[in-house]
What we know:
Blueprint: H1 4-7, E1 9-12, E2 28-35, H2 43-51, H3 53-59, E3 64-69, E4 76-81, E5 86-90, H4 96-108, E6 115-118, H5 162-173
Parallel strand pairs: 1-6, 2-3
Antiparallel strand pairs: 2-4, 4-5
Amino acid sequence: MSVNSLFTKSGYVTAPLANGVGRYIPQCLRMTIKFCKSHGGSRGVREFIENHLVEFARQNPGTVVYLKPRRHRSPVVVAEYLNEGREWMPLHDMPCEEIIKWLGVLRTSAGYGEMHYRSYQHTDTPSIQGPWTPFTHQPPEKNIMTFPNDACQDPPLLKPSATEIIKKMYQNQS
């Protein structure tokens, strides 16, 4: 167990409020953008407010955007969600385009933040081989091949598919 997992919340992966089973409910309630009117690190935030804030608010009517000017402080955005979660992100010296992208990320997230996810299943003797994937028992030469490749043959023990059987029956008829 790492030290980080001692201090992070833990929980199960669930859909908040059965979201998407009837209609979509945006999880981000409000965003508070705190910035300084004269600080150099707030230049990108001020540009976003002047040029893109009205369009952002028009495109996202379910999210309330508050502006809070503060003197001589670095800019931050605080997003508050339906599950009473809060995410805080510094915007110091970020250009306007990057701020638009990060606000989109905060707007579409569910507000759980960093969480150690638990599983509903548990075993006392976990597998030491790791999880199975379709590529587990494949030869390593396939990693550098380009497909389709004639040298790569199917395994001889593989039974023909139903489609191949029907194709052979059709060819035998004619």
